[in-house]
Each structure stands twice: as C-alpha cells, then as structure tokens.
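LuxR family transcriptional regulator
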Amino acid sequence: MDQSEKLLMGIENILSVASDLVDEVSRLKNVEDCKILKENIYMNQLTEAEQEVFAIDGHSISEIQDILHKEECTIKNQRKSILKKLNTPSMTEAVQQFQNLHQEPSQKLIRTS
C-alpha cells in the first residue's frame, strides 16, 4: 500500500468519524429540545403564581411570605393546588418529578458501527 492509498484511507476514516459526530450532535440537540418541551408541559399546568411558589420550594412558609410578599393562607392554597394539579402527595415529590424530567439513561456518546 503506497502513501497516497494510506492518506486516502485516513481521510475516509476522518470523514466517517465526522459524520458520526454530526449525527450525535443532532441527536443530543433533539434530546435537549425534548427535555425543554417536557419541562414546559409540566410547568404550564400551574398558574404563574403557583410557579413562583414551586420555584422557591424548600423554604419555610414564612420565608416564602417574605420573598413573595404573600399571605400564609395564599401560599398554603397555592401549594395545595400545585399538589392537586401535579397529582403528587408532597412538594418534595413534585420537585423530584420535575428533576426527573432532566435525567436520561446513560448512553454512548458516539455509536460505533
């Protein structure tokens, strides 16, 4: 095998790898788009006010009152509404469900043929 044949084979190999990388980048973009869509669907079940309460979950009622300038009964009602809409027994579980939207089973980044 002469040098030009080796060079040609090397170029073909590089082009094959580049093609695989382009396919993988496209797949990863589609995965990210899907995650964003799932997040939007999940959050669009809630009103804007409920989304505010959901976003700062983990704080006490009094801390949320200070942050959002809302009454305790309003916050409790919004939390109750969030749980009902998301069909979860607790805010912790609702947040966990939201976080699970971003998890993807581990996959090979580059498929070999």
